Amino acid sequence: MVLRLSIKKRSVPLVPIGVGIAAFILAAALLVHLWQRSFGVGWFIVEAVCCVAGAMVVTWLGWCLHRLLESVTSIARQLKQDGEANKLDSTDVADELADAIASRIDHYRQKQFTLEEQIKQLQIQLQLAQRQKHNTDAIIYSIRDAVIVVDEFNRLLMANEAAGKLFGFDYKDSQYNPISKLVKQDKEEFTSLLNKSRINKSRATRRELTFADGDRPRTFDCIVSCVYDKREQVCGTVAVLHNITREKEISQMKNDFVSHVSHELKTPLASITAYAEMLADGEAADEKTQKEFYSIIQSQANRLSRLIEDILNTARIESGLIKVDKKPMSLAILIAEQLGMIKGYAEEKDIEIITQKPIIFDQAYVDHDMMSQVIVNLLSNAVKYTPNGGTVTIETQVDEIAKVVRVKVIDTGVGIPEDKVEHVFDKFYRVKENDKQAKGTGLGLNLVKQIVEKVHEGRVFVTSKVNQGSTFGFELPLAVNEPATVTG
Q1: What is the pLDDT of residues 138-194, one digit of tens each?
Q2: DSSP per-residue codes, 331-346
Q3: How far apart, in whole angstroms, are the C-alpha atoms of residue 356 and residue 354?
Q4: Cβ neighbours of residue 191 under 8 Å, at least 6 residues apart?
Q5: Average pLDDT of the chain?
Q6: Apex 452 CA angle, 478 and 417, nearest 5
Q7: Which range is least confidently modeled, 20-34, 191-205, 312-326?
Q8: At 227, which helix (H) or strand (E)?
Q9: Domain map of the chain by residue range?
Q10: The domain at 145-243 falls in which architecture?
Q11: Which CATH fold topology does 326-477 show?
Q12: Could you give the CA distance from residue 449 to residue 373 in angstroms, rounded to a whole number?
């Protein structure tokens, strides 16, 4: 805003003229005074001249004041006009400024809204990422296999509980520690595998690692994979170790089973073949010898049949294809029926079999043939592992409170080591310490477990002490108020 003060060109410089006139009057008055003193002129004339001069000066000063007031009035009017104009200009500028500010505010408000939406999206993505990380961590920590993640410098980033137990470190408080310091020297093969995989930038390396664990070494299927970033540079390594000790043992059991079965099959077949050839060659001239050969052939054929039947029954039960015909039956009576098959074998070893009188109310819903096989397997197993002159006791108990009927076969045999007891019902399993005592395929007790638990919904149990004997038995639901079925 500009203020313009204009003065007309004709305006006279009043102050210098007034000063000049006043000086002239004073000079004139002084000359008159000197002239009066010199020529004797009276003071009255001097006063008259001074009055006239004073009146003229006063008139002139009035006129100057009037002109001055006009100039001030003109300046004030000009200022007022300029002020009104400037006021209008200021209003326009203020409006334009307000519009610009409002526009800028709207712009930033829209930008703020956009940023808030972006922040919300980022928060959602962050929550999803955190949830995914939490789920990933939970999955890794819940895996039974040992999982270890290291960075490009072989420092531990993540490990689960299974890895901590395997390598002997605290998996929660060992982050960013060198893996070489966490893994003991007896497992250096693992750290060496991690280093080689990282150096070779292998996508996936698989190797079996065996670690000593007391008397029983443990074998792991180890898969090591490198992790790559966006630039295809190795930024870490992941290792997963799956315990295959049990699988290796089962595989070995199967191999042993095939070997045992082959031997078991060959033995009766060889006997049958040999005695049949002797009969064909006429080496059994008398009737007594012929009957003896026929008896041996029949016994070996039955043995071969039982072995094949055990294998088939196990396969049928596991596949669920076996037919079951359950009826209420006294187990004591059923045991008495099967003792005849074991009696001759026990007499050969001078083993006494102790039984109890049948009780009519110990009945359970059972399949006759399958439960007979269970009893025969338990009795023959007891006689097989009992030294000459020992005893085998069969007991039947009824538990009215638990509503079960319990059968126990107690022997005075070689017993089973404590750490092997839990595996005796496993398929193909045989206690190595007892191999010299008797041969077998490892199917008999497993078949007992399958029949009792899967087919009859019962329970098998065992207790044993080395050189003192074993107790094998089973429980079945009691068939209450059902009359027992006596066969034979």
Answers
A1: 777 778 889 999 988 889 988 888 888 888 888 788 888 988 888 888 888 898 898
A2: HHHHHHHHHHHHHHHH
A3: 7
A4: 154, 179, 180, 183
A5: 78
A6: 120
A7: 20-34
A8: strand 218-228
A9: 14-137, 145-243, 256-319, 326-477
A10: 2-Layer Sandwich (3.30)
A11: Heat Shock Protein 90 (3.30.565)
A12: 11
Between the CA of residue 323 and those of 108, 279, 326, what are the distances in Å?
82, 40, 10
DSSP assignment, residue 420?
G
Report yes or no: 219 and 245 within 8 Å, Cβ to Cβ. Answer: yes
The residue type at 123: Q
Query: Alpha helices of 281-354 — where are they, by DSSP H?
Result: 287-319, 331-348
Rounded to whole angstroms, the Cα distance separating 469 from 381 reads 12
8 A C-beta contact, residue 202 and residue 226: yes
Beta-bridged to residue 352, according to DSSP, are 391
Query: Torsion angle of alpha carbons 328, 331, 337, 338, nearest 10°?
Result: 120
Instruction: List, in sequence order, every residue forming a beta bridge with 407; answer none if it has no partner.
Output: 396, 474
Q: Which CATH architecture has domain 256-319?
A: Orthogonal Bundle (1.10)
One-letter amino acid for residue 294 of the chain: Y
Closest CA to 10 of 67, 58, 59, 72: 67
Retrieve residue 484's tokens.
């027992």
* Tokens matching residue 284: 């059994």
Cα separation, 383 vs 380, in Å, equals 5
Give the model confidence (pLDDT) of 67-88 as tens digits: 666 666 666 666 566 655 555 4
pTM, 2 dp: 0.47
- Exposure string of 244-278, with b = 16+ CB inside 10 Å and e = fewer, is beeebbbeebeebbeebbeebbeebeebbeebeee
The answer to whether 347 and 312 have CB atoms below 8 angstroms apart is: no
Distances (CA, A) of 356 to 108, 375, 391, 406, 408: 99, 15, 14, 14, 12
Distance of CA 331 to the CA centre of its chain: 50
DSSP 370-409: HHHHHHHHHHHHHHHTS-TT-EEEEEEEEETTTTEEEEEE
261, 262, 264, 269 alpha-carbon torsion, rounded to 10°: 140
What are 299's two structure tokens?
């016994």
Confidence band of 96 (pLDDT split at 50, 70, 90): confident
Q: Which of 251, 261, 256, 250 is nearest to 312 (CA)?
A: 261
Residue type, 368: H
- Residue 33: other Cβ atoms inside 10 A: 15
**Rounded to whole angstroms, how far apart are CA atoms 471 and 412?**
9
Q: Tokens at residue 220, please?
A: 């792991």
Residue carrying the six token digits 């292998």: 202
- Number of Cβ within 10 Å of residue 103's Cβ equals 10
